[in-house]
Fold these 4 entries.
Entry 1:
Amino acid sequence: MVKRLEEQRRDITKKLEITTKHANSNKRKAVHFWKLWRQQQAPQNKIRREPRQIERDNLKKCRSTDELIGEGRFGCCKKMMYRGRVVAVKHFKDCSDKAVHNEAATISELDHPGLPFIFGVCTKQQPFLLVMEYYGINGTSVTIARALKGKMLFGQPEWTDVVLQCSKAIAYLHSKGKIHCDLKADNIVLQDSDGVTRPVIIDFGKVKDITTAKTKKLSLVDQEFYRKRHKHIAPEIVRGTHPPSTASDVYAFGLIISLICHYYKFENLRRIAVQCIHGTPEKRPSMDAIITTLDNNSV
């Protein structure tokens, strides 16, 4: 009896050792494949080159007295000279060098005529600077908002082309896994290029990755503040039901088109605007769909 029990104990011990060995082997395999999966899922843009450091002494004042391009909570943007060419220099206020480098790195990764070109940064001392190509008409910085107020473009073909070019720039941004999160008429400047008006989307300080954008919960007071002061922010973001997305960029773009239609009664653009500002994000058109509509002249 005792001998039989001892044999059973040895059998059980042996089976446990075999089971433990298999479990450890499976655990090592699982860890190995998990690491491989993590490497594949890691965003490519995490490996970023440091932006070029520009020597502050190489930035000179312009001869023109109208140096200030615009200003906001971030600081201000000035027209300056860099190595013999006119540039737009963003001066940051109360901002970390990491935030400046992130914005510079985002712009550097993008290559599209409707997006800005960056020369580099100055982050060795305050105020931190971001140096970009200057865009304007006859030497003056002109945003869509300013062009509308000043009646600088008159024809429907001109404005339709501006909307189309903006659509292509935003679609390119989305194809790179980015969302702008701050599209508005003051953040699109116009460039006179060989007699053709070309829009350029600026201000990439709030750009987010599509895959990592998070829902933000706002108090009722903050929600009301956003509805009054930041009308270009999509309602689902203000309510805290959705994170920023390509659809929220489409909503903001729809408001820009609506502003154009406020000054000019373009029925083709008005219909697109109505679709873009739909209250349900899933029912808004994609940027590619907007481009197709404009290209086919089917509106």
Note: The longest strand covers residues 75-82.
Entry 2:
Amino acid sequence: MGRETEHWLLKTEPAEWSWEDQAANGGLSKWDGVKNKQAQKNMKSMRSGDLCFFYHSGSKSRRVVGVVSIVREWYTDDNGEGAVDVKAVGEMRKPVDLAEIKKDKGMKDFGLIRQPRLSVVPVEKGVWKKSFLMQTLAWRPNLTNLLTKTSLSSWRDAAVRFRAFSSSPDYSNQSRGGLHRFYSEKFPGSKGDFVRLQGDEFFHMTKVLRLKVNDRIELFNGKGGLVEGCIQTIDRTGADIAALEQPKLLPPLTTQWHVYAAFGTLKGGRADWLVEKCTELGASSLTPLLTERCQSISENRVDRLQRVIFAASKQCQRLHEMTLKPPTKVCGLLPVVAQSKLSFIGVAEATPVFNSLCSVKRERCGIMIIGPEGDFTERELSMIVEAGATAVGLGPYRLRVETATITLLSTLMLWSDSGTLD
């Protein structure tokens, strides 16, 4: 008789790694950075198929937001740190707050309450089955069937089988393809050349998607390169991929929009969301704009946003990865505006954006500018407009920085796609 599925709770600061990050990364992540010996001991006890509550910690968000499964047991990574790999299984329809858990007298022995500072907590079977927790889970498929290892494995297989990307032989639509696509910085030079895939991409290929020798895939390099390949060999550290065709180098298909947005003051996951959506919509680059009301953005945050860009690029299957540029001040933006044939800045009560677009012609590149919370100062706005930016209105209401950014970018991308470039 096999070992029964055990249950755990994993804590994470949402500012460092949130449920939204987990979802954006294809549901897969490496759970590392755990230093506490007791927490490490708990992680070493985890087995493939075990289920874990995904718990947002911190002063403003203490709640269970979803469930993940263990897909790779304790191992030591290249940096010498211990980790397990987890895969998203279900999201709470309504997050369960710590305060709600504490109200239940039957939860008094729950490790989350008894050892509140422990980041990896075992969950007793009785606690796991508490109806007020489990009934809030948005399981797909049925919850009862997923509580066994066998059905959990079947569900993961089904998720792979139902991947609904249509094939596009001429690659005229770069966002769709019939094969699983993987990132590789090293790219084959010609048909028949080999590339070795390692690290997270290798793990995703073999452990999550369970691809095998002779399966066909696509490789991209984030710079427009795309090639169809075939898995030739698989060993413990990587897979060798053979190019089945001459690699293609595909140019961007529409106007390259460069986004300047003052989002350094955004809290929680709002900046992540802005970066993710800019990536998905097809922005060529994103530059954090420093203004009098948004004077900095932390280096740690920039590192995190790079990871968000990579995950979003894979999710939407874009071939040209969006560039996150170093922060710039308004004085550094002015020469860029002056040299650009297309430049727009979101301004309250300005001419509606669609009216402005009727009087300009499409170009191969352009820039758009969004100010900080509290907007630009009058002096900053005057300088940018005098440099050559066209002020455009985004509707009658006051918009958040991230909402304004995505609204203007969406409009410009759709306008660019509606005709041919000059």
Note: The first strand starts at residue 7 and ends at 12.
Entry 3:
Amino acid sequence: MVTKQTLSLINFEWQLVALISLGNRKIAMIDLCDIELLSERSFYAQQLNDGNWVARCSQDGKLLHRLIESPERDQEVDYVDKDTLNNRRGNLRVCSSRQNNLAKDDQPSYRHWFGMKRVRDYFRAWDAEDRKWVGKFSTVERATL
């Protein structure tokens, strides 16, 4: 079966890659070695709750990055450059949920202290398990304990 997916080949960072038109003015990028995925499938753009866009298969609903990397059920796929439409193998990394969360740029921090924030004249610590700010500490060092 041949899909009607719009496909372009470009030179990106000295490598030939394929661009897939997903609709909604979104384009996914894949390596040429993965172009066979397009022979049986077509993809569309889906916006996630965090605002990022991903490529989802129209036939079975699978995400393009998971089709490329084939992670185990309990594993996730991280985008090294944080571009969720860049599905080149060099940009994808199979990891645990914890590793994926640690790699995100939006982790709370105060200067070089991870999981700390200053509130007026005191500091609060981020409880990653309960996902909330806790405590009221006089110094950032005390908040880390």
Note: Residues 28 and 106 are 23 Å apart (CA to CA).
Entry 4:
Amino acid sequence: MAEVTNGKSSITRLAHDHVFYILHLLPVESILCFSMTCKRFRAISSSDGFWQSICRRDLGSSSVDDLVASYEAECRKIHWKKLYQQVLQFESVLCARLAGKDGISPRPRASHSLNCVSNCLVLFGGGCEGGRHLDDTWIAHAESGFQHVLLWQKINSGVPTGRFGQSCNVIGDRLVLFGGINDSGMRQNDTWIGNVICDDKQEINLSWRLLNVGPNAPPPRGAHAGCCVGEKMVIHGGIGLDGSRLNDSWLLDLRDDGRSATWHEIVTLVSSPARSGHTLTWIGGNLVILFGGRGNGYEVHNDLWLFNIGGEYPEWAKLICDTANVPDAVPDPRVGHSATLILGGQVLICGGEDSQMHRKDDFWVLDPSVIPAIKTRSHVLNFKRSSRKMWKRMKVEGHLPSRRSFHRACANQSGHCVYISGGMVDGVTQPTEALGLGFDGDAYLVKLLL
């Protein structure tokens, strides 16, 4: 207990900077409780400077810097405590269609890759009409999207070789691409590094290089899922050489400043069922979230798995929450959706299609902070918190993107905005096109309304 002298606890006599430091170590719920103990603590914990430091702690300094620049450009003043609450409680997104300057933009495609690295959008490959693959790389300054125009530049073709259904993730200031399927149906298992180069004239370029990974590599596949985990990359599942779906997991460890790397399989006692067209999203530390996808029986899932790749024994755990009394509490089953880590450590889910190829145009946000930690070697995590707190369906303002699947999405550096590109959309059914499939070339900017 704190020492009491002359009716005052010793903690109340701490210097201002000491109290500030202590509060800065606490979770937000504890800060709010602490602030109710006396007027002095309430004043310190309500100050704008204190909440700016909490925003930097929890949202990241680079995200906060980008938000400051955005607010200054709009001549808006930031109230930091209110901003923190808005990030965690926002309920709407604003969508805007992005035009290509002078009508120049990548051709319609799906199952390509789209990433934001060094403040640049990089688009590669994908599939297009006729079942053909593409081998082109396009690049644009991400900031230009705020003016609803993208200045796309076609960088090169042929390297890497054409493919669709590859994974491509950002590690540091590099792109790491793995696998995919070409238009002959051949699965790949090569690994490529992409480096973005910006010169003093603000001109941008990108070079691809085949990465030396040694003799051990994942079996060839496409339509798998992948994400970065700090300075490493993890992949899972996909469609293998014989057309069956996989449930294995592999980790890529870069070495020598990205000049070489090694793959090793992550062996677990239990894994999520085999699938393709699902998503993996890093949510911090050693934790990855898996959502959705298509199984070996062509069933489409909306299950949620937590993958802890750290420690001596990596493990999967299925997340189960009772939704019997909460209608429309979770997203419908889907495959070919996107899942993007956004501001506040939340995950934005967009689109996809169900088992009947009915495409979707909805947006959902998953809050990983309500997911219980794996404290025991349990492969199922049941928790009683309302799934409505874990999942929120977003209201949409502006130009709603058409229903689509196998599009691609990525967030800007702050996580405040998400870019969406391409995908499969409902086309005009012709006698030779029984399914009425169409490829889309549109790009959209999705902004969190805070």
Note: Residues 265 and 431 are 46 Å apart (CA to CA).
